[in-house]
Amino acid sequence: MAMKHTSRPRALWRAAAAATAAALLLAGCSIQIRSQPDPSIGADTMLINADKGNPQFERNFNPFLTNKRTASTWIYEPLLEINPLDGEITPWLASRTDLPDARTIDMTIRDGVEWSDGTPMTPADVVYTFDLIKANPTLDLKGAWQHIDTIEQQGDHVVFHLQTDDVPAMEIIGQTTIVPEHLWSTVDDPTTFRNPDPVGTGPFTLGNYSPQQYSMDRNPSYWQAEKIEIEHLILPATNNQLDTVTRGYDWSYSFISDVEGTWGAASPDNRFWFPPGGVIGLVPNLTKAPFDDVNVRRGIALALDRGPIAESATEGYLEPAGQTGLILPNQEDDLDPSIPNDGILEQDVDGALAAFAEAGYTQQGDRMVGPDGQQLRITILTANGYTDWLRAVQEVRGQLGAIGIDVQIQAPQPAGYQSAIANGEFDMAMGGMGNGNVYQAFNNLLNSEFATPVGETTAANFERFSDPEVDQLLDDWKATTDPEQQKRFGYELQNVVYDQLPVIGLYYGGLWGLFNDSKFTGWPSAENPYMAPQNYDQAPLLIFTKLKRVSNEGDDK
């Protein structure tokens, strides 16, 4: 998530997809399931579980629409590639980015790039794209025009003049997808245009298409064509968790229960990597008593043993999370070394009881009783079908119940959950914090611009935290290009999260990368975390350039 850059409410970090009947079957199956690659799919072709029909595919390759086909982001490219794990930037359609001052971004547009119809891609296409999403704000998925004042072209440079000092805006602007002026300028209504025959700058072009499956073909004129060793991609519409294990996918993205005993055992070439991608935690509604009392929040935080919570939620694949707002080890270079234990709060029941006592709560028998003589009751909101969250909150209920807190669980459908957190209509909710970009993580969590009144929708800061001093820290960070100053501001904001507990961190939510090495190698891994293992959004663009074909006897390449 990024600073006020969405035009609609967004769900908080979710650790895993809902469990399906197939997943339950896999988890309890005593018969060994094997993955048998389709012999009709060649060694130069990747079978990829990355898109889902509903139940069939709509032929929609407009990269600005939310219901687009996943492969749209492999056809159209951004100015910058950003690793969601650690925020590392790779120049993409912009070969260089300079910040002459805190409110100016100067991007050098890469020379020699062609659209897949052979037309050169130029800086004018970049300016056109930004003008297009300004004129049609629903297409501005990254919220670039919330930061831009004006744009000008200077030769092969595109210069963005910002509304205010706003250094972090570079990454938001850089993730905007660029489209060709010579084709899109003829579109009557780009907000409804399905773009059935897409022309982009990316590594693949659209191949065969049907409602059940579509294919992508290697773009021979791609500006990094020498790095692409995949000739074709096949994306089926049907890909439940049983399919994921048995169908012979080269790349999938899914949480699977007992992944070692299912995906891992199905083929000796199957690999998986589940890096932390966010902090899952309890989001208190700071507009409501008693959650507006930091001592109550501290009491809850200290009463919890995060080890069993993480084990229950993620089957041991992810670790307990710290209380700094950072994702470790991804962002360990940004961690304030003065914060003890990497920010992880150990269970301290005596400390919890002391914190509750500061708020006027005492244990009376088996109940935690407040100044009004009533037992402390907490309703925790989660979403129906988010099974990892449900397991976590059930463990939380048991642990808090042990000190006398009555915890109720409310689990509406995901749309109802998202509406409730966006509108502030909850007591406490499962949710999270964290982002590959440290500034964006703290901005989304703490910026009072997002702290709308209860009943009004917000896109971030769902807990409604507000502190003028913290807002000033965020503004100071936006105004400096000095990395050391930025790190110092990061330290200060970590301590705010650690001390004031706007969200109570529990465990890391994972990114669920499943790979097969039989045809392609070079996947991101813990040893080489060059990109998040997700096969959606813009991450695959970099991954495709890193993959190498396995040479097999009889190969013609």
Automatic annotation (TrEMBL):
Pfam families: SBP_bac_5
Top-rank lineage group of the source organism: Bacteria
InterPro entries reported for this sequence: Peptide/Ni-bd, SBP_5, SBP_5_dom
Gene3D superfamilies, alphabetized: Dipeptide-binding Protein, Domain 1, Dipeptide-binding Protein, Domain 3, Periplasmic binding protein-like II
Signal sequence range: 1-27
Signal is among the record's keywords: yes
Keywords, sorted A to Z: Signal
CDD domains listed in its UniProt record: PBP2_TmCBP_oligosaccharides_like (cd08509)
Domain Solute-binding protein family residues, every copy: 88-436
Protein name per its UniProtKB record: Peptide ABC transporter substrate-binding protein
PANTHER family given in the database record: PERIPLASMIC BINDING COMPONENT OF ABC TRANSPORTER
